[in-house]
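Quick one - first record:
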Amino acid sequence: MDPISPLEQSLHAARALVLADLVAGDVAEADVVSLVEDSIAQRRWWVEQWPDGAAFVAGLVAQDVQDALLERYGRWPLCPVCGSGDPHALDVEPELGPDPHWVCHKAGVKVASVGSLGPSLRGTTSS
């Protein structure tokens, strides 16, 4: 059996992290998972062209899925920090860098690392 290449490792890790956040937000339906797979396919080519970008793939896939969800369904993930005002989505930071995390720019706080959104979402109550 051949070892998994660093490229594939980064893609599998990105897939797992984004799927974990989708599951935590109760939006991991088949069509949404397909959005993740579409992003992974596109990012595979991107990392093949720029291998040093492998550490950035998780954040990019999270942004890709967030953008695709916005076009089809609306904002995701909604901010669990701000309890009042208009609902707004979290953003991924850094936009292109390692260790991506979800942030609320309105409150100016880091909410969770990409892949670890579950505890932050479970701490909120629905209105």
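second record:
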Amino acid sequence: MSYPGYPPSGGYPPQAGGYPPQAGGYPPQAGGYPPQAGGYPPQAGGYPPQPGAYPPQAGGYPPQAGGYPPQAGGYPTQAGGFPPQAGGYPPQAGGYPPQQAGGYPSIPPAQGGWGGAPVGGMPGGGMPQGYPGGPAPGQQPMPGYPGGAPAPNPSMPGYGGGAPAIPHSPAINRGYRGAIKDHPGADPLRDVEVLRKAMKGFGTDESAIIELLGSRTSKQRVPMVAAYKTTYGKDLFHDLKSELTGSFEKLAIAMLQTPAKFDASELKEAISGAGTDEACLIEILSSRSNAEIREINQIYKHEYGKTLEDSISNDTSGHFRRLLVSLCQGNRDEREQVDTNMAKQDAQKLYAAGENKVGTDESQFNAILCARSKPHLRAVFHEYQQMCGRDIVKSICREMSGDVEDGMVAVVKCIRNTPEYFAERLHKAMAGAGTKDRTLIRVMVTRSEVDMLDIRQVYQQTYGKSLYTAISGDTSGDYKKMLLKLCGGSD
């Protein structure tokens, strides 16, 4: 039996059937997304180097017999050396890119990508060797990378010898990382009988409501709304609001909405409430997938009669508005593969737009942080640290201020380590005098079936106590009991 608003099979977040790169995409992978062997994040045979992976073996880099630097016979290199010959890297049928005899590969224009712009800005879509040209007049030379061979161009950084260091990224946890799992045999028609009984007559059985809602996943809770109206001819949200109060009421209402509808309502409140909750806007738009953001846009337009982009544009300004408008398009690259050379070039662009420039080119930060894939950006952040010896977050704080600084920093933190970002959001919501209940409710509801186990682990390591303990000490009553259900346990 299907009910209006019932999330698609697979629940939230999107499961198989989500956003795969299409055949012919960049780079083509057998089976598409998630990444196959050799992809990023690390898979068997991937990065760090495994047998047969990167760095390439005989004939590749680091130098082998006949490779680079030139052996007997001089440069150009011998068969199998550099530059790539026919059958070079990678040697897969239909692989990336097709080799030209004796030449450097040329990259075809992007298909369905960002305006089909040439990769690296070269005419015809060619990939430049090494880095783009030196700094503009009046700029400082680029810093050199530590150790190893000198840079081929004095104005560009020189990388150390051997394979590049492994970009830092959070450990990939296998399997389901949410704290709430599907309840076996859950039936919305039987569940609404429990809710009706808990609210009927004198008084309310809050414990029954907590036990029921706290033991069902979102896709099992949402159909209760339609089942309640079908069975009793009444609106479940209306009845809950009349029976419950305060933060407990808001939490119960949030749990009965689809993820996208709840996000849309939170964005609306963040924009039209007293003042603008910039942190909420960034939190939602930087942590959701393209498919989720597009669904939020549809619901927002349907519910509130105007587009999310228009609402953001009317309520914000300057570079912060541009950042939010870019994020709400839902067009971020979602490929999992990482091109290390491209990551180095993007790190160079960020350095040239900030630390190595009088003033700051915020539009360059915007273009890279909002369009590139999350695995790629993690590699960019690592390369940036290696290149200039400063964390990207510290550079942003030195170069920017106000809302745009807060926004850029939040985007970087969320992309670099999402559980760590949400652990910090929870800590700040409960720290100091008073509790930011809206933030606490939103994070606990939206992450309870995504990465709550990871958030709990990071929270314990970072703040020296479990998230369960923190919630217990900062909330009370039925509200506390329901939040602890979403937390799933103490660490």
